[in-house]
Amino acid sequence: MSAGREDGPDGDRADGVLVRDGAPAREQEAADPDAPSAESGLGRLTATVARLREQVRRAHADADGRALLEMATGVLVERLHCGPSHAARQLTDLAESAGVPPLELAADIIDQAAQDRLSQTAREFLTRLGTETADGLAARPGTGMPGAGQGGDGPGAAVATPALRLRTAESRVLAADDCQTVAESILEHALAPLGATAVAIWATGPGASLRLVGHAGLPAEEAGLWHYVPPGVISPAIQAMTARRPVWIDSLSEAGVPSIGHRSFPDGGRVAAPAEIAGRIHGVLEICWPDRVEPQPPPIHRQVEALAELVAHTIETVPADSYGGTPATREAPDTTELIDLVDALHDPVLLLLPHLDSAGRLVDFRIHHANSGFADPGGRPRSLITGALLLEAYPEMADDNGLFDAVSRVHATGEPFRDAAMPLTTVVGQVRVPTRCDVGITRHGNAVVLVWRVEDETARLANLLQHAQRLGRIGGFEEDHVTGHITWNSQLYDLYDLPRTTAPLPLDQLPAHTHPDDTAAVGRFLRSVVHHRRPTSAAFRLQRPDGVTRYVRLVAEPVVDADQRLVAVRGAYQDVSAQHWTEVALAVTQDQLAHSEQQTAARNRLAKQLQHAIMPPAHEGVDAPDLDVAVRYRPAEDEHLVGGDWYDAVVLPTRQVLLSVGDVAGHGIDAATGMVALRNALRGLAATGAGPAQILTWLNVVAHHLTKNVTATAVCALYDPPTRTLTWARAGHLPPVHIRDGRAAQVPLANGLLLGAIGEADYEEQQLVLEPGDILLMYTDGLIERRDRSLQESLDQLVATAAHASETLDQRLDHLLTHSTSDTDDDTCIVGIQLPLAARALAVPTAG
To answer: Basic and acidic residues: which segments have biased composition (predicted)?
Structure first.
């Protein structure tokens, strides 16, 4: 809602006239005779409400205009050193002489006096007045403010109150002499209308710390608890200072950050704005709301930034000892003591002072002094560097290394900066030379001290050598035999587990720190180095005072003079304990691995021997009446893959032919022994004369109860020669393949669970009447199983291969093995039967 327009219960109002549906009320009354007239009760009530609202609006406008004129009068009091009455007359006379309204002249005076962001707010306020406002002011010469004390209808009623609230707060701040008064004035005149309930003013301290110097709307005990915030506390104020921008928090409880006022307003919103002048942050303004704060429009953001700048002005001008802070001034400080300090340092140091533009903004830093240890990377003398601007002397700092940003940040926040390996590009002649430097930046008053040590080749190599000795666990020493002085590096102290204050041990005391079994080797080492003057090495166990034994390799060489007299011995210890124990563990592991390999090989050989004893790869044919039987067994190529596949083809006492194939889960000796148990059990059960389904039922009991965790699949079939009938059942196995008249197909599946899965299982029995020339194939999964295709695809491939014409049954089985597409290298068993073309049946029953 703008300042010159308010919404009423019955419509809108513009310029003091009640508006309904976009037209003034008087026009509506003329257009609508039935509308309530001004003389009616409702009309009089409406006019009274409109008149009262207009009076309230004019009163606010008058107050706002008077506040602006009072601020301009106050500026003239200070500039002209006169009284308020004389200053008010001067303001009126100046406005008449210039031919401008007094309000516009007051804004110009304030603009020139303030020169901050609030002047823009005042200018926007006058712009909103428009031409009508200026004409109205000109129509009232000699008056201080349109309608001031008159209650007239001046256009000054359109003055925007937010701008004047800012000016009112500014006038109170400029008149205040302490931060506490500033906090109370800001809350009362500028922030309370925005819904804020508390304000805290922080001043920066050493090391990016904060000190509470003013507050309003906060309990005294909570302010006492938060009188000081050390560096590293992630509070909104610290965040705003280090980020150098306002930090808005919708809800303090959701953000989970500590701050002042969290007891009084745990769910309230926050904004913390840095109070910055000329590139230096003097403090932080923190504002508290009792409830969650929704995103605010840009004008509110600008208002908060303007208030923060007012706070910075107060902190800058208020004596530092009044709140225990560090004094800050824009004038050039006395740097005599700082110059003496940096000249006493061996490291290269630059003393920098902020350089401001005409508007008071920080644009660069001037090199105020360079100490005697400073060496310009480009080879320029110090006289050319001193007095120059930092970016003019070293423009590369503004590029990619971030050094200038680091200097600006330290100057703004006071937080020290250190980087031991900052990349820096310097220009030598016309060549850009990349290097690294050790940088330290601190702020002292308004000056910045930049310690800038470029890493030369010697320092870089020494640093590299130090890291190599640390990583290699190498301790160096030198023993001077002329002076008796012994030098150790820090790694050698760590190896001996001795404090740095302990005197280094001479070589002749080495046997006292050696394991008794290694003293002879150490003695030979010392004789070779000291007496025979020969470089020597030795490996021994070093016993430390803490009882720890370290395996050490010692290398030393003698240093002799021109007369071949021993001058010194220098060398190095290397802690090889980790390598020694690694070698020991590796040797033990190798022994264990060799033993395991021997045991595995023995078990695999036993399994293969057992399997071949039961099922030799070259199997003789079965002499069955009117039936050709052929078998094939292909063992796995790898011994560790010896599995539990089996086959069987035998003529029973009943003259029936028993045919079976099976596969025990797993590999190795356990699978082979399980195969033997199930195969022999199946033979014995078949001798009872039971059918295949009953045989598998009993065999399941054997697998589940009489063996140790054996599960298997199997196909059991009985062929009756007189009737040419094949009765069969399966226990989770792949279906047989039936070939008739050159066409191959899978035999329909019979239901049956794999053996050993449960204690009791039933199996379905099926019959197949063979015709002369029919072929039936039973096999294990090693013939078809592949990792890259489904089981059904492999079965389809097997059926297509089995249909290939062959002269004999043996040739057909060999063809299957040759063209097998399996890639699992598992055992494979095949049992094939063929009914000769001359076979005749005594009676052919119907297949059931």
So the answer is: 1-15
> Do the Cβ atoms of 656 and 677 come closer than 8 Å?
no
Residue 778 in tokens: 């039973």
What would the DSSP string read from start to end of 634-683? E--SSGGG-EEEEEEEEE-TTSPEEEEEEEEEEESHHHHHHHHHHHHHHH
Partners of residue 432 on adjacent β-strands? 427
The gap between the terminal CA atoms of the chain, to the nearest Å, is 96
Query: Using CA atoms, how far apart are residues 712 and 677, in angstroms rounded to an integer?
Result: 11
Counting DSSP H helices and E strands in the chain, the numbers are 23, 30
Spatial strand order of the sheet with 417-428 comes to 362-370, 349-356, 447-454, 431-444, 417-428
Domains and CATH numbers, the chain: 5-165 (no CATH), 176-322 (3.30.450.40), 336-455 (3.30.450.20), 460-575 (3.30.450.20), 614-834 (3.60.40.10)
Residue with token string 């100490």: 371
- Confidence class of residue 177 from pLDDT cuts 50, 70 and 90? low
Nearest to 744, CA basis, from 773, 776, 769, 767: 776
Q: In terms of DSSP bridges, do strands 566-575 and 628-634 run parallel, antiparallel, or are they unpaired?
A: unpaired
Structure tokens at 760: 């009791």
* H-type alpha helices, 139-208: 161-175, 179-186
Distance CA 615, CA 672 (A): 11
Residue range 235-291, pLDDT digits in tens: 899 899 888 899 999 988 888 888 888 888 888 899 999 998 888 888 999 999 998
HSE-up of residue 251 (Cα within 13 Å, Cβ side):
5
pLDDT per residue as tens digits for the range 82-110: 767 677 778 888 888 777 778 777 777 77
Q: How far is CA 141 from the centre of its chain?
A: 69
How far is residue 524's CA from residue 528's CA, in Å, rounded to a whole number?
A: 6
* Sign of the CA dihedral running 32, 36, 38, 39: positive
Q: How far is CA 730 from CA 661, 764, 795, in A?
A: 10, 8, 17
- 678-736: per-residue pLDDT in tens? 988 999 999 999 999 999 999 999 999 888 788 999 999 999 999 999 999 999 999 99
Write down the residue that tokens 């007891």 correspond to.
Answer: 263
Distance from C-alpha of 552 to C-alpha of 578, rounded to nearest angstrom:
10
Express each pLDDT in 779-790 by its tens digit: 998 888 888 888
CA-nearest of 359, 454, 356 to 403 is 454
What strand order describes the sheet that includes 209-216?
228-229, 209-216, 198-205, 280-288, 270-277, 247-249
Q: How far from 238 is each of 261, 285, 591, CA to CA, in Å?
A: 15, 11, 63
Residue 511: how many other CB atoms lie within 10 Å: 16
Confidence category of residue 325, pLDDT binned at 50, 70, 90:
low
Spatial separation of the C-alpha atoms in residues 781 and 794, rounded to whole Å: 10
Residue 139 CA to residue 157 CA, distance in Å, equals 15
pLDDT of residue 334: 67
Ramachandran bin of 195, using left for φ above 0, alpha for ψ from -120 to 50, beta for the remaining angles: left
Closest CA to 7 of 49, 61, 59, 62: 49
- List pLDDT tens digits, range 486-538: 999 888 888 898 898 889 999 889 999 999 999 999 999 999 998 888 999 99
Closest CA to 215 of 257, 192, 189, 181: 181
Q: Which H or E run includes 586?
A: helix 577-614
- What's the CA dihedral at 167, 168, 171, 175 to 10 degrees? -160
**Gap between the Cα atoms of 482 and 41, Å rounded:** 122
Q: Which of 262, 159, 269, 156 is nearest to 219 (CA)?
A: 262
Q: Give the separation between CA 788 and CA 618, rounded to whole angstroms.
A: 31
What would the two tokens of residue 251 be?
A: 């809800």
Alpha-carbon span 164 to 296, nearest angstrom: 20
